[in-house]
User: What shape does this take?
Amino acid sequence: MTKTNIRKRAISILLILMVMLTMMPMTASAEEPEWTTVNSFDELKEAMQQGTKTNIKLGKDINTNDEENHRYGLTPYDTIRVGNTITLDLNGKKLTLNSGNNRMSIYIRVVSGSLTVQNSVSGGEIFLNDEYKGGSSLMQVEPEATFTLKSGTLRATTPKPRSNGITLIENHGTVNIEGGTLTCTQKDGSLNANGQLDDWSSCYALLSQSNSGSVQTTISGGTFTGYVEVGVNNKGKQSTISGGTFNNDTIFKLSDEKNMTWTAPGLTISGGTFKGETSLKGLCYHEKSTDIAAIISGGTFDSLKVVMLRVWVIDYELFKQTYEAGGRDLSKATLKQGYAPYQFLGGTYGDLHFGNAIYPECDPILERTHKAFRQLLRNGGIKVGDTFYPFFDIEKAILEYGSSGDFDVENPNNETITVIPDVAMWGMKSVTLDGTEINYAKDWNGTFERMDNSTAHTLKFEWYPLAQELKDAGYSYNAKCEHYISGSSAVQQTDTIAADKTTHTVTIEKGADPKVYSFDLHLNLKKDSSSVGIFSNEHIVKLVVNEAPAAPPTLSGKVYYTSGIVYNRPISTAASVTPAEATKSYQWQRRMDSGSTWENIADATSGQYTPVAADMGENVRIRVKITAEGYLGEIVGAPVKVSKAANDNTPAPPAVEAQKDDSGAYTKFVISEFNSSNQEYVYTTSAPTSGSEWPTGGTEITSATVKNLTAGSTYYIYTRYKESDTHTAGSKISSSSVLLDEITKLNRIILTDASGKVYSSYGNGNTIYIQKGTSMTLNVTKNPVGANKWSAFTFKSQYGTVPFTVTDPTSSVVSGSTISSVTIHGDTKGEGTLVAEYGGYTPQYYGTWRVHVYENISDIGTGAEITVSTSFPDTTMYVGDTMTLPEYTVTAYPEGALANYNLAWRIIKTSSTGFAHLTQDDNIELVDGKLKAKAAHTGSNKTRLELVTINKNDNTIKSLSPLAGFYVTVTEAPTIALTGITVAPKKVNLDINGTITLSAVKQPVNADGILSWASDNPTVAEVDSTTGKVTAKAQGTAKITATCGTESASCTVTVDHTHDYNGQPYLYLDPGSHYQECKTGDDFKMEAHDFTAWAEVNGTNNHSRTCSKCKDPIAKSINYSETAAHTWVWVVDTPAAAGVAGKKHEKCTGCNATRNVDTVIPALPNHAASGGGSYAPTTQKPEITIIGSGKAELSADGKTATITAAAGYELASVVLNGKEMGKVEKLTGLKTGDKVTITFRAKAGEKDGKEETDKMIAREVSKLRLTARSARTAKKNVKLVVKSDLKAITDAGYTVEYKFYRSTKKSAGYKAMKTGKSGIYINTYGKKGTLYYYKVKVMVYDKDGNLIAQTALKQCKYASRLWTK
Assistant: This one.
């Protein structure tokens, strides 16, 4: 085969492979969705209804007239029902739906799920050609469904100009228009079949129903041709318009009702171009200015029309009822202010029109209209062209026209009308709490912010700088901040804010009392130093300060025993406890077995304990437990076993007598006064080597008579106190002997001195001490007592010259004779031996006794007989422990022998060369009279401590008796077993982002192991694994668990829990609200006072109303009531006419009280201009308070007050808005909002007048609310200042004195400290560290010094201050 042929064949194979590859199916990438292409209506319907295809696109233009199945038009059976999530891409193609002569209601019905229409290629369109009579919808969105148009065109027409209308989108659910074109017209381009707009005959590009809580419409783009109607309701969904072009009329239809509550605006318009007429419909009367159904903050409107304004300017139903009942006399109608349920915060307009149609010529209605407009603008303004109208001058921009009384914003030159929001002019910018922005309320009915008092909190009000237009017109800020607290109706503090400031900060201190703190920032304006009447520009923040959820502090440390653990010997303890300021409480405990159950020992509650019999036993253990009030946890000592105490008492020597058995042989002996209950006895057949050791190999004696012995033998009997449950066997031993024979032979002689001291004939304790030149007589006792035979013996010195002589008896004592005593005389200083000698060549003795003759008792020194009691048991210590050395008693015989010696404890260290006396070794150390364990012994090693004597002259050391010592074994400290864990608190409620550091302790706290923390639901509450600090993250419940080893304990944390207020009492909060406290005490529910109608207070210029639910915070037995001055308005009874006077009276708008009845209205001049109204001009309403007897008559316009004193009275002072005006009898230029206080006083000598004034003063004093304020001076004294306004009282000729009180309790125990005429008191003494509370009384005296009235302490808010010096 040639090379050319080979090349050709290779190329052919490659071509075949390429063709095969192009025919293979390709896998779509993960980023590109899989699309289903449809090319007919039936394919489209099947794909959209099947529910398994989510992305569908048109493959070609589809016209139902071109399809055989649908050539005569679509029928109701052809409605496409969407119940899944579908995206339809028009793909640049056109879908034409034809009705033919069939009546179709809905062509595409989105039942559930969502349908999104988009167009990825230009030119895509869905066209509805309704050839029947209209009345159909291209698309209907059901309540549970969503439709979104991103791009493309939706278009619909109906051919007959007079047929029914048609709708592109009929919305009962959620519709989002992000772009595209929506066109709906009749075939000739018109929008109405019958020439008027209605739901049935008009063509709607979008029709959203307003009566369903499921409707939500969001428009951010798109072009609309055809009517658009958006329904708005308060059922939870909000519709928003932020863009789009609307070529025809747009209707926003509110489902509003009288006083309906709108928790959030149902409609917000922030953008869009509205070329037709835009209407707001369905507005109703609202008492509350906070009920806002719609907000317009942006957009361009050719014309905006607010329909039926009259229903919210006033309460129209109330007006109509009273108007008709009053004979259609406007002066007798009740006009109750209403507010717009929407607001204009921005936008531009060609025309602004407000329908009114209710007696616009009536001044009171005009006032309410202007007030409503101010609320509508929310303290903003309007610019018409370049002319600016601030909200408080809005009436200048409102044009009334026609007999219908409709209102327009006046725009004669057809300039652009721009709504300027308050933020561009002036007004509140933000309120922040600890740097986070929070909401504020415009009245006392707002919500509140919660926090705790674990840290300080900063509340900051910030407002915008005043617009230059306002500054140029002479306006400036007039701001103040009032402080309130729950439980008091008085203003606690008023902060006056400089006009150039734009911020104000308030701090709630750490540890502030748990209560509600309210702050009312009044942000008003003034012009040329005069206040401007502004509608409701308060900014109220309520802060609920709860007690910080806190876990109790915990104990840590250890405790150990500082003395031996011995029966009936006090055990002392030492403890290192953190924190050091904790007050320790002790409790000794006992455990009866090897288990873990410990019982408290009654009355054993000090740091020292003396073990009792109940503490003894092989398995019994005791320990000490330490706790501290206010602290979590307990510290326990190691369980210890109580050792038996030593028995150092000396028993009486056994009195023994030989006895015969039945055969007449001496084979037994009897011990008289045998004490088997407390003593034990043994006998031996060999003589003892010493008198201090218990014999080994002895035979136990169990009864008083011992039988079956060997006749003629000598037996030696020993006794000591026996071991018991509480004591060891006795350390002191007594003995005697007996010869089993007819003849009872003398065994030995025992001597006893006058004090009862016994001198044995052998062993320790047989030295007789006698002072030189003195005699001593010693009583003689035979052993055995019944001895009747002995060898004649003589008391004598054993050796030659000795320091003593026997003076009686001087002759031999023969057998059987009576012997009662022996007397010796000390001759010279020295030592010798006294003997009772008998025998022959080798002398023998019935007794030998050392005799020590001394001259000075101190010469004896350690040669004396020294007794140490009690004996000392061995003890065990733990490394690091410190133990107090045992107490002891040392006696020396003769007394005073140790005067030249000190006693001390020393460690005995033995070696091959002897022993040493040390103060420390490798294991223990003697320090300051205490024993400190340094290191553990190994194996069976232990350290010996003994009590020694130290010669004061040469410091030589000598050991005492071997009994005067004990062994110490040092071991490692035992492990304190972990028995459990305690966590506190067990439950806690936290707000989101709230924190608490939980407390956890091991049981006991000094047990081994380290605690760790974990949360079972960290999305709700997370916890620091080391510190136990919990942070709340989201609503719900989490269990926070502390773990150590196998033990654990938990705290349940509930975040943002559901509060329970059911049945809780209502408590006064502030002038607008009362509250209920959650049953857990961690929250409040506030609501507005439930006031009765205003009622006149007889004899005053006031009326009052009472809350039906809460009690007065001061007079707690009665319900809270609010008192205010009457709000007088003039009411025309008979209008004045030309030449004819009229009549009028004043009527309170609150309680309907009347005054100045039959006041004459001057007749009108005959030349009065025609066309004028017959109503009184707008009147001013200053607030006037009168003290004393007199009156102030206002002129008809309310601008002038004529002041007249009653008989027997004279004018004392007139104060206008806090400024003293002198004793003027007429005030002019008054206006609404002015506050006037007029004081009259009785003339000199007018007794009756004075009594009446005294009563008036007493009433005023009873209503005073005083506030004490404290500060610390440079010298650390406390300065008290009382805040009160008493000028009206002093102007009336009365004298005021202040009586200051102090107490260490908040609400009791106040004692008078100082009385004076100054409202300032300096407290100069106190007890350091004491928190003092201060209050003040005000006493009012007449000019003669008589006390007329005084306040009660409860009328004063206390001040407090810690005394620091």
